[in-house]
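Translate structure to sequence.
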């Protein structure tokens, strides 16, 4: 799918840019992921969680005091002259329309999953399927969260066989990169290998 990566006029010759979106439910680690992986200071749109928000949002993660209300943005250059622009989605289901717009022009999606609440990632997968955007599942490994065999996870997510699954820690660069590399390799396959 060579046509999926495109050269932008402002990039040095030989560089290609790829837009990807990081999705997943509230508090799964999307903002942490972009913060860990971005080579530029990430753009964040965090607002404090309030009692008013509890009326409309199901917030099952008690330890957070802020939430993304628009998007995160970061950039990472990979080997092979590939510049990845990362857009982090907000987590609450009421932002679905906004996520649909974020997916406009995206070449791939990274869906973060917390194994304590796998079903909460269905909505993200649904939005990607609806937009016909290829995606990779990235299990964000929280301490104390159950570990499942890949087959069990695939079954729980009703995942098509072609969709890759990786495990990572969204807070650490080298671990976070495994998800990005799996996604970009999938998007560009069989164009080239990336590192
Ligand atoms: N143990 C552990 N904690 C993590 C990991 N990734 C993120 N966290 C923590 O989990 C919380 C969630 O982080 P965020 O990155 O704000 O999550 P988010 O998905 O952007 O949340 P919303 O924007 O509100 O939907 C933070 O307190 C992180 O420090 C991880 O891999 N392991
Ligand atoms: Mg966030």
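Result:
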């Amino acid at each position: 799918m060579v046509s999926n990566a495109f050269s932008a006029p402002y990039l040095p010759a030989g560089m290609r840019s790829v837009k990807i979106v990081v999705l997943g439910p509230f508090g799964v680690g999307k903002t942490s992921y972009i913060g860990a992986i971005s080579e530029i200071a990430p753009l964040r749109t965090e607002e404090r969680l309030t009692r008013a928000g509890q009326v409309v949002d199901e917030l099952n993660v008690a330890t957070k005091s802020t939430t993304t209300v628009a998007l995160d943005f970061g950039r990472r250059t990979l080997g092979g002259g590939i510049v990845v622009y990362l857009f982090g989605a907000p987590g609450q289901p009421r932002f679905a329309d906004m996520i649909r717009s974020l997916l406009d022009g995206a070449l791939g999606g990274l869906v973060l999953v917390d194994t304590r609440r796998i079903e909460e990632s269905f909505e993200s997968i649904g939005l990607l399927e609806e937009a016909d955007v290829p995606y990779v599942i990235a299990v964000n490994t929280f301490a104390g969260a159950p570990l499942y065999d890949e087959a069990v996870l695939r079954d729980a997510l009703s995942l098509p066989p072609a969709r890759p699954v990786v495990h990572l820690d969204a807070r650490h660069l080298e671990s976070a990169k495994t998800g990005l590399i799996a996604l970009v390799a999938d998007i560009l396959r069989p164009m080239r290998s990336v590192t």
